[in-house]
Design goal:
By secondary structure, the protein is mainly α. The chain has 2 helices and no strands. The longest helix is centred in the last third of the chain and has 29 residues.
């Protein structure tokens, strides 16, 4: 059985890959006209940065446990 720690770190890593890929996808192939696609892409990259920060904090927290 997979531990909660391993699953949590895996889920964060998968989320980082998904949000960063979607941000790149929106830049390369805009799905909405005008600035909307760039706004969605920027928001996706902000979420990616937030998830990376959260992942680093979780890894530090799990080392203490």
């Amino acid at each position: 059985m997979i531990s909660l720690k391993t699953f949590h770190l895996f889920f964060i890593a998968a989320s980082v890959l998904l949000t960063s890929y979607y941000g790149l996808f929106e830049l390369n192939t805009p799905t909405s006209p005008g600035i909307t696609s760039y706004t969605i892409s920027a928001f996706s990259f902000l979420i990616t940065i937030g998830l990376i920060t959260y992942g680093v904090k979780v890894m530090k927290k799990f080392k203490e446990i």
